[in-house]
Amino acid sequence: MMVAKDIMTAEVITVTKDTAVAEVAQLLTENKVSGLPVVDQEGRVIGMVSEGDLIYQDKKLHTPAFLEILGGVIYLENPQRLGQDLSKMTAVKAGEIMTVKPYTVKEDATVEDIATIMVERQINRVPVVDNEGKLLGIVSRQDLVKAMI
């Protein structure tokens, strides 16, 4: 049975939370990848930044729908989403735009477990970490497809 360490890409391009958003975009484009792990000084994965996070920079601001009844306001959508969207739209560093607490797997995670995480969580890549959360590699959808051959 194939596991994460058998199919992962071991040499992973990473950024820190202080990496400029423009530099993240350049790394994604130059390396033809759609997402990068964000690591701390010890190499622990603290987030993920993807093309999806970057396109918030060009998104229209959506204000949540609400009703006013008897002087009160009832939000029909989560009003906190406006703040989150605005934060991502104005971000200048990876730490401001990254997805925090990304899904990760250990080296011995099965291909089936990784595929299940990707499909159920609608993500395109999963960092492979050791017991301390330090980055060992990354498994992308492309890696899973290659494993099928």
Outline the fold blueprint.
Layout: H1 4-7, H2 21-31, E1 35-39, E2 45-50, H3 51-54, E3 66-69, E4 72-75, H4 80-89, H5 94-97, E5 99-100, H6 111-121, E6 125-129, E7 135-140, H7 141-148
Antiparallel strand pairs: 1-2, 2-5, 3-4, 6-7
Number of DSSP helical runs? 7
Tell me about the largest β-sheet: 3 strands, antiparallel
Count of individual beta strands: 7
CATH topology category name: CBS-domain
> Spans of 5+ residues with little confidence (pLDDT < 50)?
none
Q: What is the spatial order of strands in the main beta sheet? A: 1-2-5
CATH architecture: Roll
Please compute the radius of gyration using only Cα atoms: 18 Å
Separation, N- and C-terminal Cα atoms: 14 Å
Instruction: Provide the succession of SSEs.
Output: HHEEHEEHHEHEEH
Q: Please give the share of residues in helix.
A: 25-40%
CATH superfamily heading: CBS-domain
Could you tell me the mean pLDDT? 84
